[in-house]
Amino acid sequence: MKSDLAKTVCAYQLREDRRLWHEVIMPLDERLFYVDTGYSWGSLQRECAHVIDAMHGYMQRLHGARQIAKAFAHDNPDRAQVRERWDAVEADWKAYLTRFDEREFDRELETVYRDTVIAVPVWQLLFQVCNHNTLHRAEILQIVAALREPVDFDMNFACYCIGFAE
Amino acid sequence: MKLKHPPSALEDLTLDSESGAINVDFARRLIGFNFWENQRVWDLAIASLTEEQFRREVKFLRASVHSETQRLIETESVYLQRIQGASQVRGAWLEDGADRAAIAAKWASVRGAWTEFAQELDGDKFFSIYEVADHGGAREMQVWQLVFHVLYQGTARRSRILRLVAEVSKPVEFDLSLLQHLTGLLRG
Question: ipTM for the complex?
């Protein structure tokens, strides 16, 4: 049950991120992708790269890595490169979730967070990623609103669950 | 709307050793996080705003700190009433003239109700079925889905509140993070 819950929550995250790419980020004039708006990570480029980098980092932690590799080989990927990296990271998460079970939900692992070695159950890392992505989807919508105009993009988990149950 | 018990529990490796129910301590901690983060946002970002800043509409976000905070409180209040089976759901939106002390008091009462709910939460309740009527007819959801809906709304709205604060005043000097709450490793 808890593993089904976690898989549903993570699947929602992946779907919402993908929907954001399709409906909001890709239709934008590409020049806007690189504009620094002066808040948080500044540009959509840096904001999206940060989210993907975090997802990639947490996936490595879930597999026991202590040295975390960056998601991007250089600091200035263009929109197509960021989008392509998102596809690869999303595929890693989907593969992980297909094997996810009750034992994995509570499995305890050692990892490094804010320069400190900590022992945490897997669920804490999963929900950290979900919370982090939700925060940044909201920030991405704020950036787009600042660059152009507010976007009609409802983030509604209850509606997702009703649709999911159909 | 009524609550039904789920089918007999699937094999679960983390049964509460005393009651035999599924251990939902993780859910209690996530609910606790939501209200801890709300309080931080109020104390560290909202409390020091002037009244004019608090109520100023930021055009490109079509909101003010005041309206966004009220929406968050409203969501938390209404969904808890639904989860608890209230026949008449009462809105939590305070009239425009309500001052910040009244809004803070309202939020504290919503937090108190959620804290009580979380303390009493068990696996049977968390995974029980909630029947909801919508335009497509009766639908079934599980209580946990409604709880997570509130948690997501909280995260997204706190992000918007911090952006609104940055627009009417200055960016805040703290970050929002679940893991920092769970581990106690706060930045700075």
Answer: 0.93
